[in-house]
């Protein structure tokens, strides 16, 4: 459908809410209600748009009426539907979480408009149809994320934000050079137009692909571009940490899928091998570091690096089953990881030190059965234990690996490492649950606040409940992911919808 208003609605609803929140400066409660309403509307628009993209084909909106490839075209296809749906669901959950959040930052008037700009940029990166506008939305997301972390309650917020700002500049440079190189090769910034011309491109197109891949790997915090992520994500206030580690890192994953299936599908054989190698390293480095780190939030931050490794391997395998796994994993991980991070923030808010250190968290939840059950279920989903959605994701990865391993001993070895890496996830989430909920408090445990203090459990409960439902009733989601993956093999419908003819 041409000029689908749902595309504009998804992007401009949080943008307009940010403007309204600026007008409500100093009226914190009113700002939060505006945020919640905007996030709910944007989620409704995103889910309706995704349904249209899946049933009626690629949806577009040509800004200013300019015909591509000359104007900016916003595009929603099946892949966009998967990532945008996950982003909008988590976006709504984190705004709901702010109502019970006791972080001082939640009471500052700058939080609401900045958080709304972050959501605007996040949704825009998934909906844009050209790589320069992708760069613009990415920069808006970086700037808003830096502001939100720099103003966090933690005294190390400025340091973490500065580190990320400097490192992000490198990612920005990669992305901008990649955009410029692509324009030099193809004379266009429109993804559909580049896809149409990429089969006839020369060596310079390969250089553009490598540069863009480096930028996407940095944005997804994949090894060896991960070094900024633990500090930046851990220092962030809980709602922002939940968004960063569950969805924002998926922008890089989304970019890599677009790179390998749409922009440069004929040039990516070597890149796929690199993604598999980096994925294996990421799984073991992230998981083993999570086993040895000292902070609940840091454990979950390093866990994200390991989980991204599973997705990179699936993209590297590149067959239909593996791409189905990458899409499923990205969606399911977004829900479970955001729910787990909200649980970690809620636990920190229960003690007077607001500490997430494991030693000071031991026994905090010893007499909290509801929180214990939620954390346990979320941890099992993250580890891929049936019948939860994480199991469906990991099973899909194994199926994709089996399809890629036919007649290839090396890929069988990779598949064995993937299965072994999944066991490590179970070890570190079990370690956390036992320390916090099964062990009694000791001399190092921080003192609990009076009963009733702390953040609401409603938002993480909804997300973790969704993980149960998506595991028990997984078939519709699996079918959708497989339909999207099959569609990625044929770029003609996307190109035709955007360029016409």
List low-confidence stretches.
Answer: none
Instruction: Name the strands of the widest sheet in spatial order.
Output: 1-2
Largest sheet features: 2 strands, antiparallel
Please compute the radius of gyration using only Cα atoms.
21 Å
- In total, how many beta strands? 2
- What general outline do the C-alpha atoms trace? globular
Give the ordered list of helices and strands.
Answer: HHEEHHHHHHHHHHHHHHHHHHH
Structural write-up:
The chain is mainly α. It has one domain. It has 21 helices and two strands. It has helices at residues 5-23, 28-56, 78-97, 111-127, 131-150, 157-186, 191-197, 203-219, 229-235, 238-248, 250-263, 269-292, 296-317, 320-349, 358-361, 369-383, 389-404, 409-438, 458-472, 475-488, 492-499; strands spanning 59-62, 73-76. Strands 1-2 form a two-stranded antiparallel ribbon. It is globular, with a radius of gyration of 21 Å. The two termini are 14 Å apart. The mean pLDDT is 87.
Q: What does this entry show, briefly?
A:
With 501 residues, the protein is mainly alpha-helical. It is 74% helix and 2% strand.
Question: Which SSEs are present, and which pair or pack?
Answer:
Elements: H1 5-23, H2 28-56, E1 59-62, E2 73-76, H3 78-97, H4 111-127, H5 131-150, H6 157-186, H7 191-197, H8 203-219, H9 229-235, H10 238-248, H11 250-263, H12 269-292, H13 296-317, H14 320-349, H15 358-361, H16 369-383, H17 389-404, H18 409-438, H19 458-472, H20 475-488, H21 492-499
Antiparallel strand pairs: 1-2
């Amino acid at each position: 459908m041409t000029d689908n208003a749902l595309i504009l609605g998804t992007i401009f609803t949080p943008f307009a809410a940010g403007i309204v929140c600026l007008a409500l400066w100093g009226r914190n409660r009113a700002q939060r209600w505006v945020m919640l309403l905007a996030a709910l509307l944007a989620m409704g628009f995103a889910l309706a748009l995704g349904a249209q993209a899946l049933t009626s084909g690629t949806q577009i909106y040509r800004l200013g009426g300019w015909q591509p490839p000359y104007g900016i075209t916003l595009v929603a296809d099946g892949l966009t539907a998967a990532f945008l749906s996950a982003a909008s669901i988590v976006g709504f959950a984190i705004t709901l979480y702010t109502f019970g959040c006791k972080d001082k930052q939640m009471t500052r008037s700058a939080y609401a408009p900045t958080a709304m700009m972050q959501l605007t940029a996040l949704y825009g990166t998934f909906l844009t149809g050209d790589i320069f506008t992708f760069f613009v939305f990415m920069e808006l997301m970086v700037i808003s994320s830096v502001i939100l972390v720099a103003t966090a309650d933690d005294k190390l917020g400025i340091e973490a934000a500065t580190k990320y700002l400097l490192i992000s500049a490198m990612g920005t440079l990669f992305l901008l050079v990649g955009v410029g190189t692509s324009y030099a090769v193809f004379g266009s910034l429109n993804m559909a137009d580049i896809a149409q011309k990429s089969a006839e491109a020369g060596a310079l197109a390969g250089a553009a692909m490598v540069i863009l891949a480096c930028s996407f790997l940095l944005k997804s915090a994949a090894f060896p571009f991960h070094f900024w992520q633990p500090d930046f994500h851990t220092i962030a206030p809980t709602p922002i940490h939940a968004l960063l580690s569950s969805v924002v890192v998926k922008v890089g994953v989304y970019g890599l899928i677009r790179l390998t299936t749409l922009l440069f599908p004929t040039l990516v054989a070597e890149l796929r091998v690199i993604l598999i190698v980096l994925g294996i390293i990421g799984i073991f480095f992230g998981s083993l570091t999570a086993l040895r780190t000292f902070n609940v939030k840091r454990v979950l931050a390093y866990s994200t690096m390991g989980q991204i490794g599973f997705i990179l391997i699936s993209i590297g395998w590149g067959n239909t089953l593996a791409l189905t796994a990458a899409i499923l994993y990205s969606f399911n991980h977004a829900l479970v990881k955001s729910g787990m991070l909200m649980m970690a923030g809620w636990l920190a808010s229960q003690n007077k030190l607001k500490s997430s250190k494991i030693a000071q968290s031991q026994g905090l939840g010893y007499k909290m059965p509801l929180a214990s059950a939620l954390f346990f279920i979320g941890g099992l989903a993250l580890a891929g234990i049936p019948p939860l959605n994480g199991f469906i994701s990991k099973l899909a990865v194994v199926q994709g690996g089996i399809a890629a391993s036919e007649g290839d001993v090396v890929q069988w070895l990779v598949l064995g490492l993937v299965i072994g890496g999944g066991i490590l996830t179970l070890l570190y989430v079990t370690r956390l649950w036992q320390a916090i909920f099964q062990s009694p408090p000791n001399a190092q445990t921080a003192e609990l606040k009076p009963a009733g203090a702390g953040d609401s459990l409603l938002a993480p409960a909804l997300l973790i409940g969704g993980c149960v439902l998506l595991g028990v009733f997984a078939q519709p989601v699996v079918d959708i992911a497989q339909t999207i993956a099959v569609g990625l093999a044929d770029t003609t419908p996307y190109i035709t919808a955007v360029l016409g003819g």
